[in-house]
Amino acid sequence: MPAQPDHQASVIAIYSSWDGQRTYVSPGTVIKTLRQRRIPARARILDIGFGNGEIALAVARAFPDARVSGIDLTEHNVQMAERKARELGIETIAFRVADAESWQPPETTYHAIYAMQVMQFIAQPDDLLRRIFRALKPGGAILFATPFLPPDPALHAFFLDAYARVIPNSFQYRTEDAWYAGLFDAGFERIYTAKAHWEPASQPDAWQRRYRRAAAEHNLAFETARRHTWGGLVSARKPQ
Ligand SMILES: C[S@@+](CC[C@H](N)C(=O)[O-])C[C@H]1O[C@@H](n2cnc3c(N)ncnc32)[C@H](O)[C@@H]1O
Question: How far away, in angstroms, is 47 Cα from ligand 1 center?
């Protein structure tokens, strides 16, 4: 999907003024997946699009000998995450501003790189997957969480519209299979997904209102839409 004009300016505007009150993915889910991938105790770990920083801080606590760092588009997020790190007395973590679209990482450096609810903002995700591949050490893990388009293409127009309304200024949505193809092409192996149904009826009111309006405008029954509302945490590894 092509980038929207000025998509980053709008994303920067949103994430320069948000309250950062919650993470979009539970830190426990990220930690569990990192453990399943058997990353070493002294791992170097990178969080792309760390948001309020709480996931990275929880990862730093769960892996106290690891070196955790994070990049995000906004200075606002860096300040928020650094403040939380100071409050928790965590010094083994570094947050900085960088754009994942143009980020040029050092090669074979990290044991794990994750991006939680960030891929939907990336214009060239296959290019980012290839750069992540190069930045990982052999055997290193990639993790990312994102909403999926359902396999049935007849439903894509609705979901592209509904997800973009629910996650403002997001535009990059794919089927789970398409994400797997991108990972395979980048060189990854052992790909799996912790798939999760997102129950629209139990989301915050504003989310639901936008989603229901999109369904009505696409002449789609709410029940049909909700049955297909899935996302997941995809993970894979670079071959040894
Ligand atoms: C939906 S929030 C997710 C935050 C956090 N990962 C979480 O799960 O709570 C998306 C984050 O991605 C960041 N982001 C979006 N595009 C980015 C880019 N090109 N480079 C770096 N960060 C980006 C935003 O600034 C924001 O912090």
Answer: 10
